[in-house]
């Protein structure tokens, strides 16, 4: 008599044919106790690739080495779960158990058809079915669902994935996934319900999801992604908590697909609550030796200010770290807020307690296939064996996110080998860190400009930054190489190296061009989250280029070609109205438009070498570095030239910008700037070392349009710069509420004022062997003799009025997918006599 079991299909008749009571753990297997077998009595039939002993190993004998019904049942289940077999039967033939298997085919190849938006390589990495692997129908269905999920995350919810199995000889199959990608499914509208304190326009700045528009194809944030929408809920909540709304709740993020609009409608429901201010800040400690008031200076929470959860969190972190430095490694700072609902205030209490004595047993890093382990571990201020400090763990998580190497970072804990040990688990998901860009732009200053660059933020997986770029434009050309090691000698000090070559061509604003080749190493220190210091050394070679027509003053009279000739202004004025104004009648140096004396002196001096030490101290509390609406940014710079080289000076500059939100999404901007150039030693200041100002100081003026200028009416009237400047600007930026937020357009109105003065460069050109001619301009070529008549040469005459320049204007600011663009129209109100104006200005660029 034969009893059989097939894994798929069928009701087994064996149970009906026998009335003897038998233990039946699995339907279809009938083994009487008397017929119990051993593993060696199992016969395997139908296997080709899987060894007999491998199949037998799934049947674990019971006591005494016998296989009872329970062991056979478990073995059958284990074989099925391997996924290696299409079918498994267990039969008893005489005194033996026969296991008949039908093996799953082997996959020959895995292919994708119809996919245009997502590459084969990305899909191959996501599916579990692999060439030379075992074919499994459940796995194939899972792969099809995974492919569809990938498309949905890229905004294509109409995707259809159909797996096709092509049988091949020798029990092999080819697997082909046919994909109908469907149209992109975007977010058609984003609405907010319950927001009274902040407009929908302002809240759309906070979230990552954007509405679809005509230029959405250049980005991807308009694609509906449920994970991103859920993350937006937390961003909205954090924004309210930062602005004093301690009771805020983002109740829900509702999404609905609209078949007519063929997109999603997203609605955030918000319960704002009241806005709170800080009534008092108190410090308490249960650690007897630790004075809580000694940590007061580390608090960022001030009485009278808006209750800001981020400031509370940063205060806790700083205080807990300081306590650890003082030897209280297990100190825990717990903030408490006692609310006064009537007065809308919060009394903040920082309670310092002795926490549990827990140590870090291990730090396990998972998910980094490219980034080296030490690049991740060096962001921790703690290591294995140290006291567990949650504030330091949170800081490490924030640092890892700021690296921008990973899509997601999450640090969790697991119990260690004992009750006082924990294991830190760092889960990461890497992302692409390389960029290749082709950039183009146009500005009224530099003309048309194009740039090709390639950069890598995580070079070789070692956390290094490397970039190479080439620029070619109408008036500006050059290349640059940059390299940054963020951890010099394993210290939190960034080493940067820059090699660059720049060429600025003559244009409508300057008569000369410059060539600069330089190298600059720098060191960066993060003193605090809002304060950084950069030390730098710069060495560069610079020279002026000038068209021959602007430097051809030979001072030779045309009558005999031998007598040196230096025309007086009266002579030039008389001959300009003569019968031959072409210059052949002896008009000399300035008749055809000579460049200014300082320019030609730089040309004659040839290449100069500048060697300078400098530093920049930066204070930054901006809420968003790209599109700030609140905060302060201050840069203080000093550079000392004279560490070798041909140039000596001390240059100081201060630039401060303050952003503050006003009413109805209007942002106020106050911009103050100033600088001074000091002479060091006896070395003469060059014209190129002076500050040159224009619309970068007061809008409405041309580049190099402000300040001291050569006013020789027969020359090019070059701007020669100044040693002192100041500037002040007040601007209001406001959105166009009638346009969708995603268009990114803002209007601006502003008023500027400033001044540039104090030229201290060369004003004369003394000649060797010359007597009593301090204002003489050197003849060209150099072989020409000195003027015969002392006192007839022309020195530099320049305008250097310390006059306030001012303007008012309007602007259009566009945060476009092509990069930031700005259009300005400004009208000068006050100006110097020889200043040059430019009422319209445009600048911008792109990368694609």
Low-confidence stretches: 1-35, 554-588, 767-793
What amount of the residues lies in strands?
Answer: 35-45%
Head-to-tail CA distance between termini: 76 Å
Mean pLDDT: 81
Cα-based radius of gyration, to the nearest Å: 39 Å
Structural class: mainly beta
Strand order of the largest sheet: 16-17-18-19-20-21-22-23-24-25-26-28-29-31-32-33
For the report, how would you describe the main beta sheet?
A: 16 strands, antiparallel, barrel
Approximate shape: globular
Secondary structure tally: strands = 33
Report the total helices.
Answer: 12
Helix content: 10-25%
Description:
The protein is mostly beta strands and 848 residues long. Helices cover 14% and strands 39% of the residues. It is built from 12 helices and 33 strands. It has a 16-stranded antiparallel β-barrel. Helix 8 crosses helix 10 (390-402). The protein is globular and about 125 Å long. It starts with 13 loop residues before the first helix and ends with a strand. The model is unreliable at 1-35, 554-588 and 767-793 (pLDDT under 50).
Entry keywords:
848 residues; mainly beta; 16-stranded antiparallel beta barrel; three-stranded mixed beta sheet; 33 strands; 14% helix; disordered N terminus
SSE topology:
Blueprint lengths: L13 H4 L24 E4 L6 H5 L12 H13 L3 E9 L2 E8 L2 E8 L6 H7 L10 H17 L6 E9 L3 E9 L5 E8 L6 H7 L19 H17 L6 E10 L4 E9 L5 E9 L23 H17 L5 E10 L4 E10 L4 E8 L6 H5 L12 H13 L3 E10 L5 E10 L3 E10 L3 E13 L4 E10 L2 E10 L7 E12 L8 E16 L2 E15 L23 H8 L20 H9 L2 E13 L10 E15 L3 E13 L5 E13 L29 E2 L13 E12 L9 E13 L40 E2 L5 E12 L2 E12 L9 E8 L1
Helix pairs in contact: 8-10
């Amino acid at each position: 008599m034969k009893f059989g079991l097939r894994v798929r299909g069928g009701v087994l008749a064996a149970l009906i044919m026998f009335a003897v009571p038998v233990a039946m753990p699995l339907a279809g297997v009938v083994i009487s106790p008397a017929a119990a077998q051993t593993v060696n009595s199992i016969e395997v039939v139908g296997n080709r690739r899987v060894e007999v002993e491998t199949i037998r190993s799934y049947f674990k004998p019971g006591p005494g080495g016998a296989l009872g019904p329970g062991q056979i049942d478990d073995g059958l289940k284990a074989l099925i779960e391997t996924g290696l077999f299409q079918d498994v039967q267990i039969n008893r033939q005489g005194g033996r158990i026969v296991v008949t298997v039908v093996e799953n085919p082997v996959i020959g190849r895995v292919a994708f058809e119809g996919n245009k938006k997502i590459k084969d390589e990305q899909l191959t990495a996501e599916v579990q079915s692999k060439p030379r692997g075992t074919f499994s129908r459940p796995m194939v269905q899972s792969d099809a669902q995974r492919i569809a999920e990938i498309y949905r995350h890229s905004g294509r919810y109409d995707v259809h994935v159909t797996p096709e199995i092509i049988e091949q000889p020798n029990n092999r199959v080819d697997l082909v996934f046919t994909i109908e990608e469907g149209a992109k499914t975007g977010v058609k509208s984003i609405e907010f319900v319950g927001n009274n304190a902040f407009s929908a326009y302002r809240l759309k700045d906070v979230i990552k999801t954007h509405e679809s528009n005509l230029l959405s194809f250049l980005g991807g944030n308009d694609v509906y992604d449920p994970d991103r929408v859920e993350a937006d809920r937390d961003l909205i909540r954090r924004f309210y908590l930062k602005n004093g709304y301690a009771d805020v709740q983002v109740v829900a993020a509702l999404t609905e697909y609209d078949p007519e609009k063929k997109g999603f409608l997203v609605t955030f429901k918000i319960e704002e609550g009241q806005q709170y201010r800080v009534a008092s800040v108190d410090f308490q400690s249960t650690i007897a030796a630790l004075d809580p008031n000694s940590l007061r200076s580390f608090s960022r929470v001030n009485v009278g200010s808006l209750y800001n959860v981020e400031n509370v969190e940063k205060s806790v972190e700083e205080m807990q770290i300081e306590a650890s430095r003082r030897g209280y490694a297990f100190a825990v700072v717990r903030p408490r807020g006692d609310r006064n609902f009537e007065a809308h205030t919060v009394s903040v209490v920082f309670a310092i307690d002795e926490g549990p004595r827990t140590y870090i047993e291990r730090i396990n890093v998972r998910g980094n296939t490219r980034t080296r382990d030490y690049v991740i571990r060096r962001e921790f201020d703690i290591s294995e064996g140290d006291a567990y400090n949650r504030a330091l763990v949170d800081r490490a998580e924030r640092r890892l996110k700021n690296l921008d190497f990973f899509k997601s970072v999450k640090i969790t804990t697991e119990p260690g080998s004992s009750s006082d040990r924990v294991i830190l688990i760092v889960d990461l998901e890497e992302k692409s860190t390389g960029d290749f860009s082709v950039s183009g732009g146009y500005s009224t200053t530099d003309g048309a400009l194009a740039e090709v660059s390639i950069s890598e933020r995580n070079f070789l997986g070692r956390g290094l930054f490397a970039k190479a770029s080439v620029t070619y434009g109408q008036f500006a050309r050059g290349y640059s190489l940059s390299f940054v090691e963020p951890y010099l000698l394993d210290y939190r000090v960034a080493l940067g190296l820059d090699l660059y070559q720049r060429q600025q061509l003559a244009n409508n604003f300057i008569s000369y061009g410059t060539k600069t080749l330089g190298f600059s190493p720098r060191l960066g220190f993060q003193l605090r989250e809002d304060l950084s210091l950069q030390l730098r050394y710069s060495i560069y070679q610079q020279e002026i280029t000038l068209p021959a027509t602007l430097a051809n003053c030979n001072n030779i009279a045309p009558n005999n070609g031998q007598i040196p000739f230096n025309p007086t202004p009266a002579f030039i004025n008389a001959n300009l109205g003569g019968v031959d104004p072409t210059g052949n009648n002896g008009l000399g140096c300035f008749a055809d438009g000579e460049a200014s004396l300082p320019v030609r002196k730089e040309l004659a001096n040839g290449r100069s070498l500048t060697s300078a030490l400098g530093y920049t101290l930066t204070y930054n509390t901006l809420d968003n570095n790209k599109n700030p609406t609140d905060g302060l940014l201050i840069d203080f710079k000093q550079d000392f030239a004279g560490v070798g080289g041909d140039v000596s000076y001390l240059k100081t500059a201060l630039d401060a910008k303050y952003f503050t939100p006003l009413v109805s999404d209007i942002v106020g901007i106050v911009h103050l700037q100033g600088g001074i150039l000091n002479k060091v030693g006896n070395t003469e200041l060059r014209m190129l070392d002076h500050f040159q100002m224009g619309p970068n100081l007061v809008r409405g003026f041309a580049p190099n349009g402000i300040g001291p200028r050569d006013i020789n009416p027969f020359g090019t009237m070059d701007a020669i710069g100044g040693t002192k400047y100041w500037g002040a600007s007040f601007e209001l930026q406001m959105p166009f509420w009638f346009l969708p937020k995603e268009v990114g357009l803002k209007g601006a109105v502003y008023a500027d004022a400033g001044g540039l003065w104090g030229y201290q460069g060369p004003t004369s050109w003394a000649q060797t062997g010359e007597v009593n001619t301090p204002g003489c301009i050197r003849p060209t070529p150099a072989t020409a003799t000195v003027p015969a008549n002392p006192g007839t040469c022309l020195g530099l005459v320049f305008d250097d009025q310390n006059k306030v320049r001012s303007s008012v204007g309007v602007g259009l600011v566009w945060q476009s997918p092509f990069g930031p663009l700005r259009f300005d129209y400004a009208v000068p109100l006050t100006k110097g006599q020889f200043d040059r104006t430019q009422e319209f200005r445009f600048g911008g660029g792109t990368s694609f």
